[in-house]
């Protein structure tokens, strides 16, 4: 009997930018709102529970129902360690989710800005992003 392998294609409907920035989350959100037509607002913290420790990570969110997209700014450093230790050099993650997978990558613009030291598009497992439970689309 021949073995069959189940292959599941996952749509890449996320665009993720890793950001190195010395600004506070409030100031970074303000800059993003001003220059990129977002309306990021403080959202509930992302909570991770590991080995009897609870870690909280700051989160700001913008949802545009007209364009069916959400933009989330996550702080990588929290009360107990890092949200994504693999990317420990990044201070923030800017995640854009679109219903149709047509996200806008702001990497070049952010790298030219005065408030961001470095920005790079990164690949994260979509299941990891879903586990963060910050998206409603």
Written description of the protein model:
Helix content is 18%, strand content 34%. The protein has a 6-stranded antiparallel β-sheet. 28% of the residues are buried. The protein is of the alpha+beta class and 137 residues long. It starts with 13 loop residues before the first strand and ends in a 6-residue tail after the last helix. The radius of gyration is 16 Å and the shape is globular.
Spatial separation of the terminal alpha carbons: 41 Å
pLDDT < 50 stretches: 4-10
Structural class: alpha+beta
In sequence order, what are the helices and strands, one letter per element?
EHEEEEHEH
Major β-sheet, in short? 6 strands, antiparallel
Helix fraction, binned, reads 10-25%
Task: Give a short synopsis of this structure.
By secondary structure, the protein is α+β, with helices and mostly antiparallel strands. It has helices spanning 25-36, 107-112, 126-131, and strands at residues 14-20, 41-50, 53-64, 69-75, 92-98, 118-121.
Provide tags for this entry.
137 residues; alpha+beta; 6-stranded antiparallel beta sheet; 6 strands; 18% helix; 34% strand; globular
SSE arrangement:
Blueprint: E1 14-20, H1 25-36, E2 41-50, E3 53-64, E4 69-75, E5 92-98, H2 107-112, E6 118-121, H3 126-131
Antiparallel strand pairs: 1-5, 1-6, 2-3, 3-4, 4-5
């Amino acid at each position: 009997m021949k073995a069959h392998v189940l292959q599941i294609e996952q749509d890449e409907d996320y665009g993720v930018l890793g950001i190195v920035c010395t600004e506070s989350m409030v100031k970074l959100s303000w800059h993003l709102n001003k220059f990129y037509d977002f309306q990021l607002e403080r959202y509930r913290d992302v909570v991770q529970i590991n080995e009897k420790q609870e870690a909280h990570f700051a989160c700001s969110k913008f949802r545009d129902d007209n364009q069916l997209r959400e933009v989330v700014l996550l702080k990588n450093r929290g009360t107990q360690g890092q949200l994504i230790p693999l990317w420990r050099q990044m201070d923030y993650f800017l995640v854009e989710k679109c219903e149709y997978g047509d996200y806008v990558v702001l990497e070049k613009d952010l790298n030219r800005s005065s408030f961001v030291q470095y920005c790079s598009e990164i690949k994260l497992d979509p299941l990891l992003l879903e586990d963060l439970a910050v998206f409603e689309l």
